[in-house]
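dumping this here before i forget
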Amino acid sequence: MKQRFPSFLGHLGIAILGLAGLQARAAAPETAGPPIPHRINPGHMTSEAPTAGSTGSMTPVIKWNGGPVLTTPNVHLIWYGNWNQANGSDTPAGQSIVGDFIHGVSGSPYLAINSLYTGSGGTAVTGSLGTTFQGSDAYSRGSKLRDSDIATIVSTYITRSGIKDPNAVYFVLTSSDVSETSGFCTKYCGWHTSGTIQGVNIKYSFVGNANRCLSGCAAQSVGPNGNAGVDGMISVVAHELEETMTDPNPRTGWADSNGAENGDKCAWTFGQSLSVAPNGAYYNMTLPGLSVASRNYLVQRNLDIYSLCYVNYLTKTQ
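structure:
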């Protein structure tokens, strides 16, 4: 779902749900017709520790709406724009941070939260991911994208890669010089949806480099991996990943009566136990990597089916 700016009362901010901390605001209900993305709203960057958020029950209660879930999805990372800069945020090193996260989050105590969700036929989300694929697209649709362009970029990638996979999440990850004109940085930080692409039901997501708007799409101005923009993207990628797994065709899987999905319920909250990296950045989880042995991340919490937000479901860390 789109994640918008929360409503704030006072300098700490009180969410529209009436809970201390930063929470998501539900988007308008989905309507028939072309796919309408569920978007993750901009949050609030702070030089202080990111808010822990509520540990209480989130209402209205999330429920299953009769549709499927993605049990063990493959992941496609489509690097759009220019990710070959030598310095800054849009670098190969930045790409490695995302790749390491996708590798490490599979089967993690964090993604285990999703294993509680079941879909049609009794199939359950496993909390693990399948194979990760990557590709690049150097501005095939320019640097000012519309929502419809994201579907076209995914279709172009499918044609080039030859992989048309209904059991996958296709992420279009844009460099910081690319805008998404329906409201990236002002109305949302990322979104996911599904649609028929080349005759197949494809699940796809847009996430832009938070370096374009750190004050709106990153929780802090310094990232635990030294790349504030990409470190900010990680939490949005996690949000869209967990929502696509539990509600792959928006509002047919797990969502509340307002259309809010599990990630929306815990958006921009990071738990009560935060650590501090040597560079001063906060983080709430450490996962194994591919390019390095392990990395630290600051990732929003996720909702279980009992309406509680967690960072680590195995230890019940909220």
